[in-house]
What does this fold into?
Amino acid sequence: MCLPFNITSLQEEAAGKRKKLRKLGQMYLQAKAELEDLRGEHVREMEGLLENIRQLSRELALYMLIIDRYIPKVYQDMIEGHVQWNDDIGEWQLRCVAYTGNNMRKPERDRTEPVTLKICINCFISIDDCDRR
It folds into this structure.
């Protein structure tokens, strides 16, 4: 009596659930693939950052070697004592750098003195012979 109706409705329900299960399975596989892509991208980004850290460490070691080689420790300590961070420009600045010799102008040469040049016309005569003439 009601049995055929229930069987067809159960079959339709099972077919609908199978369809929904397939759709959810595809969504799961897509999400899984996207997660793997994100993990791979994360690994590549981390490798790039680690390589950047290694490169910066090498550069820092080189700069420290140069500084230690050419600037005595006493002067390094003096510089470190007079340096301050400037947030506006994002750089370290030396206090009173305006009074150092680096910012002084070179004195102008006195151009009133005549410049004497010895020019020898004959190329086969030595410079000593030119002085005698």
